[in-house]
Specification:
heterodimer, A: about 170 residues, Alpha-Beta Plaits, four-stranded antiparallel sheet, elongated, B: about 170 residues, alpha+beta, 2 domains
Chain lengths: ~170, ~170
């Protein structure tokens, strides 16, 4: 499924409900009311977009450090050694994101542990197993108010929803 | 936050059921009436454990293929004010103060910028640069080359293990 094939209703579903999803007995029926659609249609639409991989999930985004303790960690690994290092990093269930980036410090990954001490042990073990120093950059302060991800679509309609954040239509 | 809250988060971390009464189904799984599931989730929203509840798109699949981790060296006495300003930009998806690792790493402000193309990320980074002005002592963009692993949030232990619950 290409994004160019997305209908207006698909775009609205993807863009307008990234926060303030209703905490009510029949939330999809509420969405349907705002979209001028039916509960059954909305559920079918979300299922279809999820199957196409365009929706990750419907659910809660948890604030970091409220459950467990996490950090952004980085390693500088020579290109020819990357594959081996990535294997060591990715086999840890505590790693949920790992990106290769264009920099001497080229591997960047998020590690979530039970607490700070547990995290220290995991990182020390990772240094041993990979043979490279691990730099840890835990969050000091969060400056972002998380309203979701602006999909940057010009909106060719007048939304009647008052839940839409301005960023959605930049 | 207690064990029941943790159970609710564990039961919903892969997503709410796509059925007419999703909170009732979560309630069945954790042994609570749907009203209590909803009121506990509302309480976790109010106290910030849950940031938001929503439909979470996969922006990579939606065409935002370029992401740049922009990193900035900002004087410590200005970072609160300037970090807030950068965090409010609509194209910034994460904005954190993180520790410097001197002498190798002097950057203390990290802002994630997404775009459909590399140029779009560069243009947006210029906007951040203009906003920060003379306070910038150095900066870099670390473009992503490839995603090596990406899974959602996971509770590491089942909720009943005694080590948890802090």
């Amino acid at each position: 499924m290409e994004t160019t094939e997305l209908s207006l209703q698909d775009r609205r579903v993807l863009n307008e409900f990234q926060h303030h999803f209703p905490l009510s007995s029949a939330p999809y029926a509420e969405l349907a009311e705002r979209l001028g659609s039916s509960e059954e249609e909305v559920i079918g639409q979300i299922k279809r977009l999820k199957k196409a991989g365009l929706i990750s999930r419907v659910g809660a985004v948890i604030q970091p450090h409220t459950i467990g303790y996490s950090t952004l960690a980085a390693m500088a690994v020579p290109t020819e050694e990357i594959e081996a290092a990535v294997k060591v990093i990715n086999r840890l269930p505590q790693v949920n994101h790992n990106y290769e980036r264009e920099d001497e410090m080229n591997l960047w990954f998020v590690v979530t542990a039970e607490d700070e001490a547990d995290l220290g042990q995991i990182l020390a073990q990772l240094e041993d197993d990979s043979g490279y120093p691990v730099h840890s950059f835990p969050m000091v302060r969060d400056f972002h108010i998380d309203l979701g991800f602006s999909l940057d679509w010009k909106h060719p309609y007048n939304s009647s929803s008052n839940q839409v954040h301005p960023a959605a239509f930049s | 936050m207690d064990e029941i809250d943790r159970k609710i988060i564990a039961a919903t971390q892969n997503g709410l059921p796509l059925t007419p009464h999703p909170y009732a189904e979560v309630g069945k799984e954790v042994g609570l009436p749907s009203e209590e599931v909803m009121s506990r989730m509302q309480a976790m929203l109010d106290n910030g454990i849950i940031r938001r509840i929503g439909i979470i798109p996969n922006h990579y699949k939606l065409g935002f293929k370029s992401n740049g981790m922009t990193v900035w060296d900002i004087p410590d006495d200005q970072i609160d004010q300037l970090g807030e300003a950068v965090g409010q930009l609509d194209f910034v998806s994460h904005c954190y103060q993180r520790p410097r690792h001197l002498p190798d790493w002097s950057y203390n402000l990290f802002a994630m910028v997404h775009g459909k193309t590399r140029n779009e990320v560069l243009t947006k980074t210029e906007e951040i640069s203009a906003l920060l002005g003379d306070a910038v002592q150095g900066h870099e963009i670390l473009f992503s080359k490839q995603i090596l692993k990406k899974t959602g949030f996971r509770l590491q232990q089942p909720p009943h293990t005694p080590k948890e619950g802090e």
